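Predict structure. Chain length: 543.
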Amino acid sequence: MNRMGQQPLLPVRMLNESVYCPRLFYLMWVSALFEPSDRTAAGLAVHARVDRPRLDGPPEGPRAVTAMPLASERLGLTAKLDLVELDGETAVPVDYKVGRPPPGGGLWPSDRVQISAQAMLLREAGYDCTRGVVWYNDARRRVDVPITDADVEATRRAVVRAREIADAPSPPPPLVDSPKCPRCALVGLCLPYETNLLAGREPRRSARLMVPDWDGRPLYVTVPGSRVGISGNSVEVRKDGEKLASIRLIDLDQLCLMGRGVQVSTAAIHTLISHDIPILFFSGGGWFKGVAHGLPGKNVEVRRRQVVVAATDSLRFARAFVGGKLTNQRTLLRRHADAAPDALVRMGALIRSAAEATSMPTLLGIEGMGARHYFGSFSQMIGADPSFFRFGGRTRRPPRDPVNAMLSFSYALLVKELTVAALAVGLDPYLGLYHQPRFGRPALALDVAEEFRPVVGDSVVLMAINNGEIRPAHFLGSRHGWGLTREGRSKLISTFERRLDVVTTHPLFGYRVSYRRLLHLQMRILARALMGDVDDYVAFTVR
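Prediction complete.
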């Protein structure tokens, strides 16, 4: 950390995290990752009474100081002490904790180091400090702690170790099967079970999914002339004074604007950015054009690794993307097509060839051959109105038939979801490992989209056609190309959102997970592979 110069002072709270879980410390301090949870909210409530500077007591005699800031260049530490009980030159730090002390009494090791560090800072400031106090709020218990020479020495060693961890190019491995992980606020960013399994440190077991649910949902604005604004804690869509839609900010994951005829107020833009809610722009025809969001993620190291890998070692990632795509295409054909045995055999051979490809041009050729076999049999999976929904192969810009128009729009929705996921992880969605960077093209999102095109993008199109949700009246066509009407786009969006809510069993981790959550999970696994936590990226495939 800060490898170009002197390290910053280490916050004592981060010292606590380094003893509690070295990986959590790295993710929070070095990678600057944070995820609010019920536990962090409880911590804020407990600290509310001591979070502002205040001095209580007479000028002479015992006094209490809250939120006392202290720092020491010699110790390399800084802290804001919750409460300090002063009596002349004697000082006793009191640290507030949410949880409970160990069952046998005493302190948790991380809490002992933290209170010792606070005592050391008070001594550096000239106070006589021989003991501290830790208040465990859940137990309503005050634990007195004598500060011994052994405590001071253990704290000095913990500071050295924390700086060694911070200077490492990669985070430490996750804890293995630890009871700390399920209740950790960063479990969805750390992925302890998944990372350990992929790295061979933990056998597969029936695990309870620890990644938190993705509660937010997108808001799609498709009506020309509508305007998006803020009303209280909600986002509202209005046209000519009539309210078309309203959603609370806490329920909003992203704002998707279709066409140039939709306006967004400046107040809405400021509010959405402050809540880390991206605004995504589509053309009137459904092409994904770009995204507006706040500052990039603080995890600079993962983007640095992304740049290095893109320049030196991208082929092994590209093989995984293409192999996952071909595998899922073959599975979809096997499930739905009645007469595609030749395509299945050929695609099986291509999957093996993709895993052994020695160059990017070879891999591109393999993907192209797979596309010809797959889309050559795609029409056999369409069971509604073959005279209208006829499909002779994949065409784009413009789509030459209704099926291609639906595929293009479905893929655009998929890519925007993965663009949002890449931004949430701290990756650069425009720097690809397989797709070449091009102005305005989210190449990395397109990379991860490859494995999901068959199971999400193509499945959405087949569902919408075969279930009768999309009909000929939902299209506009000419010899120049085909597109969906506004109602047709709304219908396909609804099918797409339902598909993301479908729950499937992860083939590696064994737990049930929705496709919506799976997109974010795979992007986080990609980040773990870039950081060196796991040797290789493993694509999601269905059986």
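Summary: Confidence is low (pLDDT under 50) at residues 1-5.
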